[in-house]
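Researcher: Next entry in the queue.
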Amino acid sequence: MGDYTAFRGKVIIKEEYKELVELINSGDWEEAVDTYSFLKEYYDIKRSTLIPFSKEDIQEMCNEEGELYLQANPLDWEVDRTYFTNLIGLEWTFITCIKNYADKNHNNKTPIQSFIDVVISEVVIEIIKIQEYYPEDGTPVEYKFENVVAKTNKKAFFSRIFTRKSKKNADKIKVKKIPRK
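Model: Structure for this entry, 181 residues:
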């Protein structure tokens, strides 16, 4: 069955990508790729279109109390509706829970890595919060993005300079710098 990774975020998008985010939120990836060609690289990664869960998926996956079923659930993510996939004004919230395995046919890129490299780096002007939870880590990891770097190399985890901060170990901050190409 494999391990799942929960991933969520709250960001401010560029005005010109509002239509794109609405397509993504509705799960209409084919039209999104046809209209926004930069998404092709992301779309080709296995399981990429599962980020984020569409609004329809969320409705289907919520129980009667409004709790979202996540295969990997840290803390209160199942009930924190402020991160359920939505677009209010230019504030985009998204959530998913996927098997974040590397796609051997696409330079071993994972869906989450590719989402950040391709989608977030293009459509977002401000990152409020992006978090990832992998059960083996035991606690959610929050990413603090400091500078945008154009592209990632094959072994890079993200195409940015970032701070990886675990809430459990807030005093232990890891910084990984990835050179510009």
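Model: The chain has five helices and seven strands.
Researcher: Noted, moving on.
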